[in-house]
Amino acid sequence: MRTLAYDCDVLVIGGGIVGLATAYAITRAAPGTRVTVLEKEPGPARHQTGRNSGVIHSGIYYRPGSLKARYAVRGAAEMVKFCAEYGIAHAVTGKLIVATEREELPRLHALVQRGRENGIPVRELRAAQIAEYEPEVRGLAAIHVGTTGVCDFVGVARQLAEASGAEIRYGARVERVDRRAELGVAVRTTGGDVVRGRVLVNCAGLYCDEVARLTGDEPEVRIVPFRGEYYSLARPELVRGLVYPVPDPAFPFLGVHLTRGIDGSVHIGPNAVPALAREGYGWGVVRPREVGATVSWPGTWRMARRHWRYGAGELRRSVSKRAFAGAVRRLLPAVTSDDLVPAAAGVRAQAVLRDGGLVDDFLIREGARAVHVLNAPSPAATASLPIGREVARRALAVLEGV
Question: What is the pTM of this model?
């Protein structure tokens, strides 16, 4: 057993942007390190990475000093540079955050202060100045954040895969993990292949908690999936760039916003409703085992009791196009229900604690011969390069110690 042949030094589970950024960072930091990435889909970035709004976030929303704040600010600049270097479609557009009700004005001012603490340039706007950026948008006040942009995150993921030099195995769904502290890890896929590595890195996104438990580590959180539903705007000329409402500080979702993408189309959304499967991109996708895992976690019920009013509004907008349009009209009065064309949904992998608290920062934990990324929703795509370096640093430290 001591002469076990390893297929790789570091075995990464998950071919989204975080897993691929980790593989890229490992081979950059330690050339010659053999990295294998297992991805269950036939290509990269098929879930959270490829189904978000494509926004390069500035970092203005996040608590100063948090991983989200530090990695988003750093990652936004690095992402623009990476896209420029490799010819990946991107644009630094800036965005507006608009207060439409008086009670939102203190929260808008708090965002200004937070942005400045995070080192982000912010311009405060009176109502009449909003039209300088967005002639069709109405509000009482707004702030303009110039470092926000958009890009093709799927293109970024593909480039990370290619540039990493890692072996990427697509169609490799993990079925079992055998982790032995004195030897390493062996992963069996549903196809019957066994891949052996010295260190495991878990970047499985929507299934990261399950992979942690397969490894033998208790993550102490559960992933509760929230579907984000989008519409496309039939009259994209109504929006020049990116327009956001003032977010609710008690909830990690940013509210229904308007995003002009790199292709010129305008996406509206997402809302946030419970999904009935971890990849539940519509109400018709139901996986009883996954629903059972969600409802059996005590934190799910505690979260629901705490946030039921917010959730009720989100559900209403999910089942009523008119209600969704009403939320959009707060920012863009010219919009009608007929302007909203259904678009592909996404699912956010939100880690929930046993007490019902929503994990509000990136969460990376280690076990014997393993590193687990247990909470990496938005702005993880923006922050993927710094996140990848941090996960790589930990994985290489574990590798050196075995």
Answer: 0.95
